[in-house]
Design brief:
The protein is 38% helix and 14% strand. It has 304 residues and is an alpha/beta fold. Helix 1 runs antiparallel to helix 10. It is globular and about 55 Å long.
Length: 304
């Protein structure tokens, strides 16, 4: 199991052009958000500056002031940011499906975390996991009408964000009722594996988790090691791992293996492998299925 995941990880993050990705992102950054989308700034002592957070509000939010809603936290991919849902059309797709009655109504919250692996840094300068599991949901609950139970709270992510979603849920059991990932970068973090990655991947991982073999937090944040140390008598959440069968980094195989381990450790998990690569040509459609999956599992307010 571990050998195959390592092989996939070695090919992972032989990344394409950073310049091209940033150029594409910046070219769309000024586009106006669709109705129902807000951009907030959330201050926290866990980060060095306020976090830019995208909030997608369901169509009935303003006209139903007595109603409270489930919330889905979305973590972007390595080339993304807090505006990814808008820039890639996912927010518009979700709102259109809600208006058409094809998707139950819930709030979607997307923090901004480029290069963070949605984790606490080894040097303590950035504590993104603490922000994600603590300050962010508290602040969202204070600003928006959010249901408070884990059965009405989910987390998902793409690639780097898929890793962040799964790891955060495992480290904070009971906080989320539904957890999913798309092409999740749930890869081994051992120091010796790091040396086989591209210099870009090695740089981003070492910047977050430590730059020396003796001083790092890699194993503490390795999703495999975390799960090997757990065994749940009662499921802490339900999970879905989704990936494309033409993923250039082999993350479909990683999803299959990690899903097996989740099931063995007491987390009911479905693995969906389907045609697609490691790109937005696949991810936009996959996100429609992910939103529907969470929507079927949320508990809802009975208020009109």
């Amino acid at each position: 199991m571990k050998r195959t995941s390592r092989a996939a990880a070695r090919s992972l993050l032989l990344l394409g052009s950073v310049t091209a990705a940033l150029s594409a992102a910046l070219s769309c950054a000024s586009s106006p958000p669709p109705a129902g989308v807000r951009f907030d700034r959330v201050s926290t002592s866990n980060l060095t500056e306020p976090n830019a957070v995208c909030v997608v509000l369901p169509p009935s939010y303003d006209r139903s002031p007595a109603r409270r809603y489930p919330v889905l936290y979305f973590l972007h991919d390595g080339y993304g940011d807090g505006r990814t849902l808008v820039r890639r059309g996912v927010a518009a797709d979700a709102l259109a499906a809600m208006r058409a009655g094809e998707l139950p109504e819930f709030v979607i919250v997307a923090p901004d975390g480029p290069g963070t692996w949605f984790s606490d840094s080894y040097d303590g300068s950035q504590k993104f996991e603490q922000f994600l599991a603590g300050d962010l949901p508290r602040e969202i609950a204070s600003r928006y009408r959010i249901l408070d139970s884990a059965s009405s709270r989910g987390i998902t992510g793409i690639s780097m964000g898929g890793y962040g979603a799964v790891k955060t849920a495992l480290r904070h059991p009971g906080e989320y009722g539904s957890v999913s990932s798309v092409s999740g970068a749930i890869i081994p973090f051992e120091w010796e594996e790091l040396q086989r990655y591209s210099w870009i991947a090695r740089f981003t991982l070492m910047r977050v988790f430590g730059r020396s073999e003796e001083k790092n937090s890699l194993i503490a944040n390795d999703a495999w090691h975390i799960l090997w140390g757990l065994c749940f008598d009662r499921p802490p959440f339900v999970a879905e791992l989704r990936a494309g069968t033409h993923d250039v980094y082999g993350l479909d195989g990683v999803a299959a293996q990690y899903g097996m381990l989740l099931n063995e450790r007491g987390v009911p998990t479905t693995v969906v492998l389907e045609p697609g690569g490691h790109d937005w040509g696949y991810w936009r459609g996959a996100m429609k299925a992910v939103l529907a999956w969470h929507g079927r599992r949320f508990a809802y307010d009975s208020a009109p």
